[in-house]
Structure formats: structure tokens, C-alpha cells
Design brief:
Elements: H1 3-20, H2 24-42, H3 53-74, H4 81-84, H5 86-93, H6 98-102, H7 104-116
Length: 117
């Protein structure tokens, strides 16, 4: 038996012994308080919510979910979300010098202007 279990057992015995030595007035008050607590627990709450509040809350939640889904659907840059992040992967795995990518727009413009001539 561990020290904690031994302590708990001794505490239980001490509390049980103290409970047996209570006078009749204290025991009667404890029983009345216990009975009153049980009766209050069995009664329906007096501040019950209106029944119409649940459907209204459900519709509001569904509306917000639809709005968020619509915003996400129409704000997507293109149909293929995996392709959107591939530019970053190309930059990270490229063999070129990182300075090359600082002037990437210039090189793209230069490539486009050669085709135009």
C-alpha cells in the first residue's frame, strides 16, 4: 500500500468517525439541504430558452458556413491549388544562382521581346 492510499484510507476513517458523532440537529439540517438540492436538480430550469432560438441559430450558422465557402471558392487563384505553390518549389530546387531570380522579371521580358521581333 502506497503512502497516498494509506493517507486516503486514514482520512476516510477519520471523516466517517466524525460523521457518526454529529448531533441530531446537524444531521437534520444536512438531510434537509440534501433533499432540497435533489429537488432542485429534478425540476426543469426556470430560464429555459425559447424554442425558436435553436432553428434560428442553425440557419445563421449554415449561412455563415455558406458565405465562407463562397468566399473561398471564388477567391482561389486557379483551379489547381497544387500548381500555385510549385513556383516556390522551383525556386528552392533550382540549380541557378539565387541572384538570377532577383531579376527574373527582366529575363522574362527579354525572352518575350525576342519572340516579338
Amino acid at each position: 500500500m502506497t503512502d497516498e492510499e494509506k493517507f486516503l484510507q486514514e482520512a476516510k476513517l477519520a471523516l466517517d468517525a466524525a460523521g457518526k458523532n454529529l448531533d441530531a440537529g446537524t444531521v437534520a439540517r444536512l438531510r434537509a439541504a440534501r433533499r432540497q438540492a435533489i429537488e432542485q436538480g429534478l425540476q426543469a430550469p426556470t430560464h429555459a430558452r425559447p424554442r425558436w432560438l435553436l432553428p434560428v441559430g442553425g440557419f445563421a450558422t449554415a449561412g455563415i458556413a455558406l458565405a465562407v465557402a463562397g468566399l473561398l471558392w471564388y477567391s482561389a487563384p486557379n483551379g489547381n491549388l497544387m500548381q500555385a505553390g510549385m513556383g516556390d518549389m522551383d525556386l528552392l530546387t533550382a540549380q541557378e544562382n539565387p541572384d538570377f531570380f532577383t531579376e527574373l522579371e527582366f529575363y522574362e521580358w527579354l525572352e518575350g521581346s525576342e519572340n516579338a521581333v
